[in-house]
Each structure stands twice: as C-alpha cells, then as structure tokens.
# Entry
Amino acid sequence: PPPAKTERGEVPPPPPVPQEEIFITVEEMPQYPGGDKALREYISKEIRYPTKAMENGISGKVICSFVIDSKGKVTNIQVLRSIDPDLDREAVRVIENMPDWTPGKQRGKIVPVRYTMPIIFKLQAAEPFEEAIKEELVDPDEGPKFPGGEKALSEFINKELRYPQSALENGIQGRVICTYVINSQGKVTNSKVIRSVHPDLDQEALRVIQKMPDWTPGQKDGKAVAVEYTLPIIFKLQ
# Structure
C-alpha cells in the first residue's frame, strides 16, 4: 500500500530506529585478540609520540572510552580526560586502528559494551651526554653486528617502521641519516639525526633505532669496544 499521508499531503518521516542498549559491565567482557598482554603490546608498538608534545615536554594519561559493538568493532571513541590536543588525537588514532575484538556477552547474548582505557604518554629521560660517550670510540678490527646480520637489520627496520601520517598526507619522503653508538655491552646509545628530512620522519627514525635489540659489540685487539655506527632510514612513498 502507498505510504500514509498527513492532512497536508506530506509523507511523515519513518519512526526512529530504537537505539541498541550499551552495557558498561557484562558477564563476559569484550576481549582484545590475544588478551590484555597483546593489547598492551599493540599500544606500545602503535603509539607515536607527537613531536610538538615531545619538544614541549608534555606527558600524561589520556583517558578514552569507546564501544565494542555486537560485531566486535571499535566505535564511538571519546576522550574523557584530555592532556593536550596532539596527545588526544594520537590516543584516538591508536584506538581507531585496533583490530576487531571478541564482543561482550550478557546472558549468552552478544551485546555492545562501553570500554574505558587510559593511553599513557611518558617521556623517556634523556641519556646524559657524558654517559652516552663515556667509552672511547675506536676504529674496530671487527665492526658491531646486528643479531642475524645485515638482512635481519633490514627486515627489522621494514617491520618496525611506521610512516608518520602527517608526512604521508603531505607527500614527504626522503632519507634520514642517523648515527648511534654500539657500546661494549652491545647496547644502542646516543642516537641522533645528522641529516634531517622532516621532524616527524626524524622522530620515527630515532624511535626505530632506539627499539633495536642488543648488537654483538665491535672488537679491537680481541676486546669489546664502543663503536659509532651510521645508518640511513629511508622513507619512500609507494
């Protein structure tokens, strides 16, 4: 039958669709794939400290809430406690990029659940310059080695590197050249950019270097020594 009309001949709007009830607590809470440990690892790996906030020494806890809907998708993200606009946006970005969760259940039925989560931005204390170079840098007989060799180093960088969104949107690419010291314990110290392309690319290059595992240190006369290493980090738009 044709839709009913009002006295003026207008078709009335359809009745509102009832909103699905959103639960706060349920018998079976939503689960991130792999559990809480995997969730923490995801946040630690995904988060990128905004350059401006880092330069201004801004840190803190951004508290967000979001809904895991009945399909396990993350929706309706809100910042409940703000620290800084850049930190807030980064927290929301990390949450938006989450994979689907296992949805929550109440009385055996899948239901949407609101979830509250803090995203913590903590500045790393800068390593004292004297500490970074307290060992004499030497020209080694045998250079330091990344675990697994050069191929493993390339694979680590390719896997770990994340193209900063702002640089991606503005078509910025290039080669950031960094130096760092592999000390006599094989640890990466005193990393710095010696050829910059863009602040966001520079920061991402340093982040990747600082996440490297311990190397096999260089050798001089059969003794482990500190060696300065130079590495280009290439950002290339596909």
Q: What stands out?
A: Residues 31 and 102 are 5 Å apart (CA to CA). Helices lie at 36-46, 51-55, 85-96, 129-132, 150-160, 165-169, 199-210. The first strand starts at residue 60 and ends at 68.
